[in-house]
Amino acid sequence: MKNHVGEYHSTSNHSCAVCTSENRKELEVAYFEGERTTDDIATELECSEDSVYRHMKQHFQPLVRKSSAAVVAIKVGEEIDILRNNVQGLNGKLAQYMEETNIHDDGVSVTW
Questions:
Q1: More confident residue, 3 or 38
Q2: Burial level of 8, CB count in 10 A (0-12/13-18/19+)?
């Protein structure tokens, strides 16, 4: 329901296909955990992908948002660990290369 300034109470819109779905919570969780796409959800609910996208931006339940934030933080942490390991490996390769190669002033590389 709209209030007097045009906003929806309880982050819900009675004309939104996702808000009115019996599976709202499951759809929201699946979307934010990367298990479902907006296109996939739109197909299931027989609405436009844009409607699903707007729902996720404007009507999304705060409780699900909060629980999703923890999942996203864990995934970001895992990706940072992977990147850190990759950089360490590259640093090791670079150090090995630098030990094996000597570059003269003329730019010619000489291997010892």
A1: 38
A2: middle
